[in-house]
Amino acid sequence: MAVDGNWNLTMTTPMGERQATLSLTSSGGTLTGTQGAEGNTAEIFDGAVSGDAVNWKVSITNPMPLTLEFIGTVSGDSMSGEMGIGPMGSFPFTGTRA
Fold first, then answer.
1. Looking at the record's lineage, which domain of life comes first (predicted)?
2. Is the previous residue joined to 87 through a cis bond, with omega within 30 degrees of 0?
3. How do strand 66-75 and strand 90-97 relate by DSSP bridges?
4. Dmax over Cα atoms in the chain, in whole Å?
5. pLDDT value of position 55
6. Beta pairing, strands 5-13 & 30-37
């Protein structure tokens, strides 16, 4: 599937740009994998893929406990979309295949 593999993400947040790594595997319409940033790695959950559309969630603890919700599209070796940060709103993210 087009989304499978390793990605480098850049997320625009209220605290400035943040970098993360993402490893994805798709099976049918389900998306699984891990996301890591600043030395912490977590399993993604509620992941789905449909055509070029992808979405997943990840729980983080740094800088504070939050669940991030990613909704995006994949085009070749790039990915872009919105990252929802609960009550703080949504912010853009981009990704490139690692």
1. Bacteria
2. no
3. unpaired
4. 36
5. 98
6. unpaired
Instruction: Compute the half-sphere exposure of residue 65: CA atoms within 13 Å on the CB side of its CA.
Output: 0
Owner of token pair 């993604």:
44
Q: Look up residue 69 and give its two tokens.
A: 């919700």
Q: What is the DSSP string of the chain?
A: -TT-EEEEEEEEETTEEEEEEEEEEEETTEEEEEEEETTEEEE-EEEEEETTEEEEEEEE-SSS-EEEEEEEEEETTEEEEEEE-GGG-EEEEEEEE-
pLDDT of residue 59 exceeding 90, the answer is yes
Written as six digits, the tokens of 86 are 């609960």
pTM over 0.85: yes
Higher model confidence: residue 78 or residue 65?
A: 78
In terms of Cα–Cα distance, which of 95, 86, 55 is closest to 72?
A: 55
Q: Which of 94, 80, 76, 89 is nearest to 17 (CA)?
A: 94
Task: Give the separation between CA 41 and CA 73, rounded to whole angstroms.
Answer: 23
